[in-house]
Amino acid sequence: MSVFERLEDDLKTALKGGDKDRVSVIRMAKAAVKNREIEKRDPLNDEEVCSVLMSLARRAKDSIEQFSKGGRQELADKEERELAIIQAYLPQQLSADEIRGIVKDVIPELGAAGPGDMGKVMRSVMSKVKGKADGKLVSELVKEALVS
User: Fold this and answer.
1) pTM score
2) Above 90 in pLDDT, residue 59?
């Protein structure tokens, strides 16, 4: 079953169960996927749907951070609940140690010597972790590895 089909099935279940939060988040996710399909003028495959969901998750994480800094804990809690629902549709995320291992393998493979090679290393690592790691975390780990 594709990710989009899971979204549709879970929306039906949430509607029947009266879970307003889940209904709201799934509708938002479906709308984002449909908008991307309209932009592309073609149906999205699972990888592209996951990409849309990753961007929604990233936006939720940013909102959580901003609401927490602003002292709006109730809004941060709401965003955390939404993030948990979105993450249920994403592939299992890699741990920081797993990403470090990939980065350590890629650096000698590309012959990267310092921070100037960050873009080259990032492209290679991101292609290997497609959808399984947050780009911000990958960036921090690559920078850490190239500086030390």
Assistant:
1) 0.76
2) yes
